[in-house]
């Protein structure tokens, strides 16, 4: 254990798994970027990357740096939890697979969530944003995570998938169970619980697949049961296991990370009254603000690849089979890529070049949808409220203890209704 992981002065202080580091990653990123950009995590076969150009290289070389093949630590290792998975369908996420078939699965879903697909949801999103705000605007105070940042993306993705809104409570439990292992901090009992919930969710999706085969609608599941996937070797209907894996991946993707981005965005906005004025004067710039939030407080801090062969990154030898942990969030604050990287600049010309959604073929399919949700949320909040302040004595400003994802546990603020 290092002396001071929260604010390491030398590489020997760095401890990427320490809770203090996870609460505030940025000093660690700054030090690693400068002194050990291809950081070999002691006692592991993981290389932790923090520089934009190196991460860019890894993301472009998809033939060498492949997905699958493990993470810095196993997400679930408890034997009873692993046994529980046998009661469901193999967790083989076809959307998280590798080229060439990866693209064929993506073609099945991209049109729902891309910029053009997402725009079809503008009225739905605007309606739900206003409906949620109506519930608490007369109170003059809100706990934003539970009252807005969680329900907004959950309701949208629930409707798009064709699940009933009455199931939201269960869906939230399953959704949280799916991302919980990425914390790399679960106890054995928590792993078992997460595994049970993941399998329950699979069975729930399976029931909906059966229903949609009988009575299709215009939702994502109906599309997936009715249309063939054009794989390299064959064109065929998707199997139940493939649909389950696509739907749970999309559902969770559409949920948790957007909650995190909405919350961090509000936290940044409250601290910057002049930025609020600028965005009220030019509401179209809310879109650029959203890019800056994603860059500065990237909800997905990093992801893993493995080296399919012996290779080199920036002159460092990487043996075949190594894990490469790419820290999007560190790249997004790399001053060689973004000038004055810790400033919010809604006129930043290359703001959209952040890596919060990854890059290239594995680029997040939900980027269009989440950008639109966040933009409409910011515009509507600034139109309907003013004079924001953090509610006194209520905020911990603590983040979830999660190695991969970054978000506040809660956010209380006061405001005046306009
Ligand atoms: C702020 C919100 C979001 C962030 C920061 C985010 C981030 C990411 C990142 C970084 C990846 C790439 C993972 C990798 O490099 O292997 C990814 C992939 C993915 N995301 Fe998102 N995402 C967000 C919202 C969404 C939404 C709204 C959806 C669904 C509608 C979604 C569904 C997915 C799926 C299915 C993948 C896997 C895609 C593939 O590998 O082909 N995400 N996301």
How would you sum up this structure, described in words?
With about 425 residues, the protein is of the alpha+beta class. It has a domain at about 70-280 and about 290-295 and about 360-385: Cytochrome P450 (Cytochrome p450), CATH 1.10.630. The chain has 18 helices and twelve strands. It has helices at about 20-25, 25-35, 50-60, 80-85, 100-115, 115-120, 120-135, 145-150, 150-160, 170-180, 190-215, 220-225, 240-255, 255-270, 275-280, 285-295, 330, 365-385; strands at about 40, 45-50, 65, 140-145, 230, 235, 305, 310-315, 315-320, 325, 385-390, 410-415. The strands form four sheets. It has a five-stranded mixed β-sheet. Strands 4-12-11 form a three-stranded antiparallel β-sheet. A hairpin with a 5-residue loop joins strand 1 and strand 2. The longest helix has 27 residues, at about 190-215. The N and C termini lie far apart (about 50 Å). The structure holds protoporphyrin IX containing FE (HEM). The site of protoporphyrin IX containing FE has 27 residues, from helix 5, helix 13, helix 14 and helix 18.
């Amino acid at each position: 254990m290092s002396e001071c992981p929260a604010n390491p002065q030398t590489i020997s202080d760095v401890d990427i798994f320490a809770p203090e580091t996870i609460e505030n990653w940025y000093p660690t990123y700054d030090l690693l970027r400068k002194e050990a950009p291809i950081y070999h995590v002691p006692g592991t076969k993981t290389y932790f990357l923090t520089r934009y150009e190196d991460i860019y290289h890894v993301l472009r070389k998809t033939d060498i740096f492949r997905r699958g093949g493990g993470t810095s630590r196993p997400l679930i290792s408890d034997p009873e939890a692993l046994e529980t998975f046998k009661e469901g369908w193999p967790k083989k996420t076809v959307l998280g697979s590798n080229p060439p078939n990866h693209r064929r699965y993506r073609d099945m879903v991209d049109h729902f969530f891309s910029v053009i697909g997402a725009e079809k949801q503008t009225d739905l999103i605007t309606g739900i944003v206003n409906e949620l705000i109506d519930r608490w605007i007369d109170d003059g105070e809100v706990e934003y995570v539970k009252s807005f940042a969680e329900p907004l993306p959950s309701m949208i993705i629930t409707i798009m998938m064709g699940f009933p809104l009455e199931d939201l409570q269960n869906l939230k439990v399953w959704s949280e169970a799916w991302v919980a292992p990425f914390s790399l901090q679960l106890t054995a009992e928590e792993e078992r619980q997460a595994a049970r919930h993941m399998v329950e969710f699979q069975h729930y999706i399976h029931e909906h697949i059966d229903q949609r085969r009988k009575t299709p609608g215009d939702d994502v599941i109906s599309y997936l049961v009715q249309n063939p996937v054009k794989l390299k070797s064959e064109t065929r209907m998707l199997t139940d296991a493939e649909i389950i894996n696509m739907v749970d991946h999309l559902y969770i993707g559409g949920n948790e990370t957007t909650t995190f981005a909405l919350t961090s965005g509000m936290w940044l906005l409250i601290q910057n009254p002049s930025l609020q004025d600028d965005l009220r004067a030019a509401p179209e710039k809310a879109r650029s603000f959203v890019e800056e939030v994603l860059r500065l407080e990237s909800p997905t801090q990093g992801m893993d690849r493995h080296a399919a062969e012996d290779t080199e990154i920036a002159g460092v030898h990487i043996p075949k089979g190594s894990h490469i942990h790419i820290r999007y969030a560190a790249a997004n604050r790399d001053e060689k890529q973004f000038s004055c990287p810790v400033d919010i600049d809604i006129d930043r010309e290359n703001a959209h070049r952040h890596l919060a959604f990854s890059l290239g073929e594995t680029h997040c399919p939900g980027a269009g949808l989440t950008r639109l949700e966040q933009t409409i949320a910011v515009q509507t909040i600034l139109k309907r409220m003013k004079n924001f302040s953090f509610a006194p004595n209520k905020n911990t400003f603590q983040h979830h203890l999660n190695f991969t994802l970054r978000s506040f546990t809660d956010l209380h603020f006061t405001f005046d209704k306009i």
